[in-house]
């Protein structure tokens, strides 16, 4: 007897190689059986005459067939399937297997041959594994004994035989083992590999979504009317949002236009109401009726049976200390007692301006509602951000974290502010790149991982494409097809006498608008006193925004407003000129009357919903003492303005409705639409304008004409309480008018059908968000809003999921001037408006500090508006960057949750290195290139030291490598890799027989895997290489370097969790 060290040349495998000769036998009793140990002695075992194997009665995992830690280098050869096939053939031909209950404490290997000198018995820590045979390093304290004498071999041989004979001889033992091997041999369906990858990703993060765990069935939420009205994708969004609300205390739903955010929010509200939580909904005043209707005992309330009981307050109510809002007395509201706050249009709170002597809405919302009283969860409904202002998101996230910058420290985000600031910095650098380099993939590469993690933790954002791609349209019905927009560029005056936009613009530019800028005329030695009195603190008091600067910004905006109103309708232009002229005359009169002081003028005709104006029209009234003012200069400027405004007004009044060329063009559009319907039987048209004055003018001119000539009933909605309709029996509130205009989408009860229908709706942007008006199929923009987002939001009223219309039409009225020239005019008329950004955000704008960025913004708008002349673009496509929908993983969690209900045990049983074979989805432009998608896991400190720190999916990495070794999608684009996996795998619930046969032929049943191994090496190199690239880059970054020293073994410090082989659709001839 001697001891085997099991290292160097003294290993168990070396002894077996000496004595396993042709026609010999081998007896094995082992606590484990490794396929890779079999692979190393495979050729010797095939020579055997007979083999008897005793194994514990355990599952494949416990036997260590493929999943032993020591076997990773062998697994990474990717030959598991071929080895399993070889092993199964050997067992069927040569081997008998018996199983014992309980454990086998130590292994025994007995060889016997006709040459007695070769008989050996090996016992001890020598299980049939790579460690036991000495192929990989094992436990050095495990004792292994070798018996070579004939007596010892005979004695131990008879012991094994008696043991063997005592065990029942049942075929199940061998069949069970073979079935484990067949499980490894069989090709897997692509969908299974997709779910396996998701399971491994999210299980380790503790973030798999379990609907049953998240939504307590006992609440009865699934029995509510609102839940039953939701589509599958909406229910998934609700589950995801509730999960984030419960985990983190907040969630931002930023689904794209037309996907029903309001109904998702109502389902979430109902869930919390069923738990007896108090709910507050904060809405912009113009959208108030969208929410109050669902809690009213009203026949038009399709959710009346759910008996909603939330409170509704306007955003502006946060600035009030008393009075009524609806039926709520603001004096006695217990602000701190709300368990859930829903903020509609939460992007209106994106700007955390700080004022010197009063709280802003933002401050009050934070202090009164979120920080005081009970723990408040915050659900925000936001427009899909066009993300050139990433800090806007930070201020919304602060509601979730109660303003605690380190609240997400335990989730891998040490500082929210730092995370967003770094992301903004990288975004600005990306914006500065040349067009050819400014690709979304490059931005994904530049932005920090913790920014993605932050978005993924707190946001749910799905786009229209996303829904069509992953949920299909079987349940929802298709989105309507968008016809090419009709672009109309009418003149102002049919008689051609009115001056051109260019000339009018020059006159507008010459206006000093002195009546609105009293501080401009304050004498120099008095300016400091006024600054002290009226300035606004920004950045917590670090700096100040001067009131005089605010006035100048306001003057710039007022000039743009005059130009915009002229472009909208000559009648609105006249009204604006009248008001400004009256303001100038009133100011002059006060100067002549020698009043002691003058107050700032109220500005009536600006669009206060415009965030830019809103931030300038707040604060205490400025009062200047006439003794502190340069009266001569002020009077001179006012007189010039009076004369110029009077001249412009005289010209504008000449263009009456009969001469109004734009109005005539609109009548023609409506007539043609009613005569040549794009969807049979549909005569409905919405006309949007930015200004209430224009809307009233259009109603006065169109309503009688439409009724008499076309038989259409007309209504006007302006959100300012002056709604009207030609339907005699209809109330003129917003809900009644919209229900009569779109009875199907508003689910009008049968008994209200006698109210009649409105076919022509004229509206301002009070209904450009949050309304489903899909009964209509034609939308007219009577004036082009400066913000392309608003145009798309308007169109979203009719461009909605589940529409009955096959086709929908957008009609845009443009100024009769080239777009580039128009935008340049606008830029000139507004002056250099860097101040606008500072005033609107309450902090220095990083972007604007870089020269030329104002032009970048104008260039961006020019490109988007040009696009809108040719096609209707999706909101998420507006951004030249990356949509939030590109960054969040909620949908994948929901996919996994659905699958886990019935298949968790199956996923748990799948071995490392599981793979499937499929083909590219199509041959078009969107075809997914062939190659391999790997899901890898970094193992141990050595690997984690050489991969990128802070990666949200760490230690897992997803990489798509092309057939030629090109990195098609690197690991930091995990969302896109998962998108590809989903597209290739969902619905492919059986192995692709043709693709598998091609793969087997190429690889000789999985034996020749060198090509895939090479791609694996490229995948690992791409992960490690990114870290090295960033480490080099960090040498030039203030604050030190990330470069670290560490030993790294390469591929074998990574585990192949699973992979998908993507073959080309057709084999080249």
What does this protein structure show overall?
One of its GO terms (biological process) is DNA repair. GO terms for molecular function: ATP binding; DNA binding; helicase activity; hydrolase activity. This is Helicase. Keywords: ATP-binding, Helicase, Hydrolase, Nucleotide-binding. It comes from Methylomonas methanica. The structure is a single chain. This protein is α/β, with parallel strands linked by helices. The chain has 6 domains: 185 residues, Endonuclease, Chain A; 170 residues, no CATH class; 180 residues, P-loop containing nucleotide triphosphate hydrolases (Rossmann fold), CATH 3.40.50; 60 residues, no CATH class; 164 residues, Rossmann fold; 152 residues, no CATH class. The chain is built from 39 helices and 32 strands. Strands 16, 17, 22, 23, 24, 25, 26 and 27 form an 8-stranded mixed β-sheet that branches. Helix 24 packs antiparallel against helix 26. The chain is elongated. It starts with a strand and ends in a 6-residue tail after the last strand. About 5% of the residues have low confidence.
List keywords for this structure.
1069 residues, Rossmann fold, 6 domains, eight-stranded mixed beta sheet, 39 helices, alpha/beta, seven-stranded mixed beta sheet
């Amino acid at each position: 007897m001697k001891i085997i060290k099991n290292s160097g040349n003294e290993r168990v495998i070396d002894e077996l190689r000496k004595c396993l000769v042709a026609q010999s036998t081998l007896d094995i009793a082992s606590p484990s059986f490794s396929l890779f140990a079999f692979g190393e002695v495979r050729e010797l075992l095939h020579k055997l005459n007979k083999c008897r194997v005793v194994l514990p009665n355990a599952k494949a995992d416990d036997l260590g067939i493929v999943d032993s830690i020591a076997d990773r280098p062998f697994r990474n050869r990717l030959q598991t399937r071929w080895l399993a096939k070889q092993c199964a053939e050997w067992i069927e031909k040569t081997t008998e297997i018996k199983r014992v209950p309980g454990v086998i404490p130590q292994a025994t290997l007995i060889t016997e041959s006709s040459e007695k000198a070769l008989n050996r018995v090996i016992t001890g820590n020598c299980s049939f594994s790579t460690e036991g045979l000495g192929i990989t390093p094992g436990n050095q304290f495990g004792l292994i004994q070798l018996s070579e004498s004939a007596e010892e071999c005979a004695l131990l041989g008879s012991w094994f035989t008696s043991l063997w004979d005592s065990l029942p001889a049942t075929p199940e033992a061998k069949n069970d083992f073979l079935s484990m091997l067949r499980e490894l041999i069989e090709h897997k369906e692509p969908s299974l590999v997709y779910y396996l990858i998701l399971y491994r990703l999210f299980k380790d993060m503790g973030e798999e979504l379990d609907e049953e765990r998240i939504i307590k069935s006992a609440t009865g939420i699934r029995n509510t009317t609102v839940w039953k009205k939701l589509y599958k994708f909406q229910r998934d969004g609700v589950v995801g949002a509730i999960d984030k609300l419960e985990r983190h205390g907040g969630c931002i739903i930023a689904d794209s236009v037309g996907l029903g955010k309001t109904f998702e929010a109502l389902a979430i509200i109902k869930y919390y109401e069923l738990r007896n939580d108090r709910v507050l909904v904060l809405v912009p005043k113009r959208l108030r009726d969208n929410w109050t209707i669902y809690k009213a005992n009203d026949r038009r309330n399709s959710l009346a049976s759910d008996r909603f009981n939330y409170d509704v307050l306007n955003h502006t109510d946060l600035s009030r200390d008393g009075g009524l809002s609806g039926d709520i007395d603001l004096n006695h509201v217990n602000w701190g007692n709300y368990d859930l706050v829903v903020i509609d249009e939460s992007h209106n709170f994106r700007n955390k301006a700080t004022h010197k002597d009063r709280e802003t809405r933002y401050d009050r919302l934070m202090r009164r509602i979120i920080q005081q009283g009970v723990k408040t969860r915050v659900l925000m409904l936001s427009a899909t951000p066009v993300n050139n202002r990433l800090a806007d998101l930070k201020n919304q996230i602060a509601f979730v974290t109660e303003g605690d910058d380190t609240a997400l420290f335990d989730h891998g985000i040490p500082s929210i502010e730092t995370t967003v600031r770094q992301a903004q910095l990288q975004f600005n650098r990306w914006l500065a790149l040349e067009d050819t380099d400014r690709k979304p993939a490059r931005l994904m590469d530049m932005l920090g991982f913790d920014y993605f993690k932050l978005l993924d933790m707190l946001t749910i954002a799905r786009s229209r494409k996303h829904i069509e791609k992953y949920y299909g349209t079987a349940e929802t019905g298709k989105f309507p097809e968008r016809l090419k927009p009709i672009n109309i560029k009418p003149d102002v005056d049919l008689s051609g006498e009115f001056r051109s936009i260019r000339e009018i613009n020059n006159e507008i530019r010459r206006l000093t608008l002195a009546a609105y800028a009293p501080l401009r005329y304050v004498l120099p030695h008095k300016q400091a006193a006024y600054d002290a009195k009226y300035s606004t603190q920004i950045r917590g008091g670090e700096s100040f925004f001067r009131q005089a600067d605010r006035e100048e910004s306001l003057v710039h905006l007022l000039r743009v407003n005059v130009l915009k109103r002229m472009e909208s309708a000559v009648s609105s232009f006249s009204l604006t000129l009248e008001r400004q002229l009256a303001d100038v005359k009133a100011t002059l009169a006060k100067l002549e009357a020698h009043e002691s002081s003058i107050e700032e003028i109220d500005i009536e005709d600006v669009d206060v919903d415009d965030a830019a104006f809103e931030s300038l029209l707040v604060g205490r009234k400025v009062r200047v003492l006439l003794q502190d003012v340069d009266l001569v200069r002020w009077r001179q400027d006012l007189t010039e303005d009076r004369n110029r405004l009077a001249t412009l007004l005289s010209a504008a009044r000449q263009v009456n409705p009969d001469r109004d060329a734009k109005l005539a063009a609109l009548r023609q559009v409506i007539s043609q639409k009613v005569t040549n319907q794009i969807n049979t039987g549909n005569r409905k048209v919405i006309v949007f304008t930015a200004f209430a004055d224009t809307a009233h003018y259009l109603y006065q001119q169109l309503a009688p004409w439409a009724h008499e000539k076309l038989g259409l009933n007309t209504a006007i909605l302006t959100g300012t309480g002056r709604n009207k309709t030609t339907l005699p029996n209809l109330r003129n509130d917003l809900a009644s008018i919209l229900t009569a205009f779109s009875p199907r989408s508003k689910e009008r009860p049968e008994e209200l059908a006698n109210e009649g229908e409105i076919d022509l709706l004229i509206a301002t942007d009070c209904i450009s968000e949050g309304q489903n008006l899909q009964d209509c199929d034609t939308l007219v923009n009577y004036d082009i809003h400066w913000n392309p987002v608003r145009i798309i939001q308007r169109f979203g009223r009719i461009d909605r999921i589940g529409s009955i219309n096959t086709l929908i039409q957008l009609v845009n009225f443009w100024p009769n001037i080239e777009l580039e020239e128009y935008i340049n005019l606008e830029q000139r008329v507004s002056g250099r408006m860097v101040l606008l950004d500072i005033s609107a955000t309450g902090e220095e704008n990083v972007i604007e500090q870089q020269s030329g960025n104002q032009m970048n913004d104008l260039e961006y708008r020019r490109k988007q508006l040009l696009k809108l002349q040719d096609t209707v673009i999706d909101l998420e496509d507006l951004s030249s960057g990356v949509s939030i929908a590109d960054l969040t993983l909620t949908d994948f969690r929901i996919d996994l949750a659905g699958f886990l209900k019935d298949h968790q045990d199956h996923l748990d049983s799948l071995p490392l290195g599981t793979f499937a074979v499929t083909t590219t989805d199509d041959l078009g432009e969107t075809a997914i290139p062939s190659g391999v998608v790997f899901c890898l896991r970094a193992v141990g400190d050595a690997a984690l030291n050489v991969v990128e720190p802070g990666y949200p999916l760490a230690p897992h990495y997803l990489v798509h490598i092309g057939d030629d070794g090109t990195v098609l999608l690197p690991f930091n684009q995990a969302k896109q890799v998962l998108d590809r996996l989903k597209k290739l795998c969902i619905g492919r619930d059986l192995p692709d027989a043709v693709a598998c046969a091609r793969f087997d032929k190429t690889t000789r049943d999985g034996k020749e895997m060198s090509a895939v191994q090479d791609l694996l090496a490229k995948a690992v190199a791409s992960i490690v290489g990114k870290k090295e690239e960033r480490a080099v880059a960090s040498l030039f970054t203030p604050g030190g370097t990330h470069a670290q020293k560490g030993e790294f073994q390469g591929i074998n410090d990574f585990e192949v969790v699973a992979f998908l082989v993507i073959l080309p659709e057709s084999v080249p001839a």
